[in-house]
Design a protein that fits this description.
Structural class: mainly alpha
Number of strands: 0
Strand content: under 5%
Distance between the termini: 60 Å
Radius of gyration: 18 Å
Largest sheet: none
Order of helices and strands: HHHHHHHHH
């Protein structure tokens, strides 16, 4: 493996790694530092990458391990996503009203808040699956856990998200009758 291979394989992953880092840290500066450290560690350890395996999963694993051993990762504090992100869903132009836009932003923020409030083991599996669109096998490689663990964490995370969204939108417990 050489620097040319690394550059060609690693640079296209920058945005994905930054987004994951930002979700994990909750802070732009910390995310930038985390990604920079990830790239430095990956370049230094490029010889340990096994050709024919998933390079993206390898990079995500380095990022995750770097985060978990960092000061902010060890705190495992609740993070809040700082930017409002609007949905990318295609909506016919005639249905876009100020009320529609307000509801979309509000709903997006509810989901962002619910994800940010998840414990880190659930947050990372949701992000890797639903945001970065990694397969269960790739997530298992990144997290160094069996695929069954990935599936159970994802199921539990989605249930926690559902419960949090019910509470946020109705003000009632999801278990209230």
């Amino acid at each position: 493996m050489d620097a040319e291979f690394f550059e060609g394989a690693a640079l296209p992953l920058f945005d994905q790694l930054y987004n994951l880092a930002h979700w994990l840290t909750g802070d732009r500066t910390d995310a930038e530092d985390l990604v920079q450290e990830t790239y430095a560690k990956a370049l230094k350890g490029i010889e340990s990458f096994q050709e024919g395996t998933n390079f993206r999963a390898w990079m995500c694993r380095i990022l995750r391990n770097t985060f978990l051993t960092s000061r902010s990762g060890l705190k495992v504090q609740k993070t809040v996503f700082l930017d409002d992100e609007e949905s990318d869903a295609a909506v016919p132009a005639h249905s876009i009203t100020p009320e529609f836009i307000a509801l979309q932003v509000e709903n997006s923020q509810l989901v962002i808040n619910a994800i940010a409030a998840l414990p880190i083991i659930y947050r990372e599996v949701v992000l890797l699956c639903d945001v970065d669109e990694l397969s269960y096998k790739e997530i298992a490689q990144v997290l160094a856990v069996p695929i069954g663990t990935v599936m159970s964490r994802l199921s539990r995370a989605r249930n926690l998200l559902k419960q949090a969204l019910i509470v946020q939108t109705t003000g009632r417990s999801p278990y209230a009758v």
